[in-house]
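Entry 14. Ran structure prediction on the chain below.
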Amino acid sequence: MNSLAHGGDTSTVEVTNISAHGLWLLANGKEYFLSYEDFPWFQDQPVKKIFNVDEPSPGHFHWPDIDVDLTAAIIEHPDRFPLKAKGT
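Output, structure tokens:
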């Protein structure tokens, strides 16, 4: 008797901390800090929405409740990617 494979891999991304200055994202063994200065979309959001993050492809992070998509490169070097929209 063969067993069917269980579901796909679980996400390896999670928000590990939120502070008055920003949030910490842990993805694939690497920790990123997202300051509210560089990523204003998160500043006034409920905790539940910030914690709801997934990684649809390697290095691409999506917050569906906030409609924010970021890549690891943008998080690591926000100065190279000027903001195109203002936080609400």
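Residues 3 and 9 are 17 Å apart (CA to CA). Will compare against last week's run tomorrow.
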